[in-house]
Backbone:
DNA sequence: CATAAATATCGTAATATTACAATATTAAAA
DNA sequence: TTTTAATATTGTAATATTACGATATTTATG
């Protein structure tokens, strides 16, 4: 008990859930928004921008990177992060798949 | 420690994170997909469809309902659930706001 | 009213997440 | 090569999430 029963769901469903989950924290939304505004940034920029400790920022960056939402490239002693909009595009595709051609009248 | 520091983020960022979080579980993705396919359903339909116990389904439905992603209307002894695509549209708007007119060349 | 059907709630065990201090790692700069 | 800057990792306390058995609630039906 306590663990998500991932094994009973399809890979596609699990992947989508992981992607949504990665976006399901205000710090990570803020990071993504900051990255969008700055085009790119390093960890220190975020540490200065957000009222969270450096290890916490680093942890959130790692989760976003594992989810494929951001990518980082080494640049001297720092790491330059930027958005991978292709990955977020998968959410677009999913959300579009939920839309109806004709909106049903139930529950309205 | 242990708690998300919501108070340091804007209401908008917190709301978006909550919405993503609500979609961040495979059971809830599956419920949303089933609802899309059936247009509407009751809890028992989902209990028959998904290999999860009834209280677990009920708990997930509650989270989706709290997030505004689904809505339920009483119908006899059962409750008829359906999607609220307007709420999911908020995610569309956010994802669209991340897109660039001109894709930057960083990190590529 | 007793029963049944559908759903919600409670209680709880197992696990996951969040945040951060302390520390390690890595690469440039002095 | 020591120092500095940037970032990652480790360890851990506090809290949240997940799943489900047991039980309560609610509404129709006999």
Residues:
């Amino acid at each position: 008990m306590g663990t998500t029963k991932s094994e009973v769901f399809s890979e596609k469903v699990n992947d989508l859930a992981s992607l949504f989950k990665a976006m399901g924290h205000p710090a990570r939304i803020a990071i993504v928004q900051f990255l969008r505004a700055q085009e790119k940034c390093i960890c220190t920029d975020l540490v200065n921008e957000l009222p969270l400790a450096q290890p916490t920022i680093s942890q959130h960056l790692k989760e976003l990177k594992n989810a494929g939402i951001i990518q980082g490239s080494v640049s001297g002693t720092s790491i330059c992060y930027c958005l991978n909009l292709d990955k977020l595009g998968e959410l677009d595709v999913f959300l579009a798949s939920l839309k109806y051609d004709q909106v049903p009248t139930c529950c309205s």
User: Anything to note?
Assistant: Residues 1-4, 25, 27, 52-56, 59-60, 74, 76-78 of chain B lie near DNA strand D (CB under 10 Å from a C1'). Chain B has five helices and two strands. Chain B has one domain: 9-94.
